[in-house]
Amino acid sequence: GQNIDQPTEMTATEGAIVQINCTYQTSGFNGLFWYQQHAGEAPTFLSYNVLDGLEEKGRFSSFLSRSKGYSYLLLKELQMKDSASYLCAVFYNTDKLIFGTGTRLQVFP
Amino acid sequence: DGGITQSPKYLFRKEGQNVTLSCEQNLNHDAMYWYRQDPGQGLRLIYYSQIVNDFQKGDIAEGYSVSREKKESFPLTVTSAQKNPTAFYLCASSPPGLAGEGEQFFGPGTRLTVL
Q1: Is A68 left (phi over 0), alpha (psi -120 to 50) or beta?
Q2: Per the CB < 8 Å rule, is B102 touching A33?
Q3: Chain B residues within 8 Å of chain A (Cβ atoms)
Q4: Given CB atoms, is A87 within the 8 Å cutoff of chain B?
Q5: Cα separation of A108 and B9, whole Å?
Q6: DSSP string spanning chain A?
Q7: With an 8 Å Cβ cutoff, is A97 touching chain B?
Q8: Looking at the predicted structure, is the pLDDT value of residue B102 above 80?
């Protein structure tokens, strides 16, 4: 079966760095997405990894290890507006996404 | 202005009534998806469609129905057979592309409450 695990909640301080981990077990893996979702709103795209390694995009970076079934999202220089849920999603069988339950991040001043 | 629209944002229905949620996109995307999100849970796939006049069941299709008569539109009907319909419903679409380029673009969502 398909399964994705990520921590339920995390807290951090403004200006700090936080790493959100995601582990997965899926067949037909094609890539891994990270989405940000503010409460009551639609998810918005953050990053996409299909090959092993680190993808950097401004304050956000995402890492993938396909052999370990592991990814992380790294957020630097945290801002209050980064308080949101972060969803890990695996793209498989070329036509579907399966989502983790999301990690709710709270940033404190 | 290209995008995905869902209406209404909030919807209230009495138990036992069918209700249809609309989803329209002008991005010229082939694939469209419906997800359900419950508090503290991830998105779960209800139905998806890769092309007009064709759709497939997702993981939780029971109690739901869809149609895809036009490329731009993918309405979802929540029937009275759905045991627990109160949830946040998200529609998404994705452009055609090579395997692995599956980024999905989401509409603003409809929060359905069944009284």
Answers
A1: alpha
A2: yes
A3: 31, 33, 35, 40-45, 48, 50, 58, 88, 90, 99-109, 111
A4: yes
A5: 30
A6: --EEE--SEEEEETT--EEEEEEEE-SSEEEEEEEEE-TTS--EEEEEE-SSEEEEETTEEEEEETTTTEEEEEE-S--GGG-EEEEEEEEETTTEEEE---EEEEEE-
A7: yes
A8: no
Count Cβ atoms within 10 A of the Cβ of residue A71 and give its class: 0-12 exposed, 13-18 middle, 19 or more buried. Answer: buried
For A32-75, write each residue's pLDDT tens digit: 999 999 988 999 999 999 999 999 989 999 999 999 999 999 99
Residue type at A78 in one-letter notation: L
Which tokens is B56 given?
């497939």
Strands A84-92 and A29-37, how do they pair? antiparallel
d(CA A70, CA A66): 7
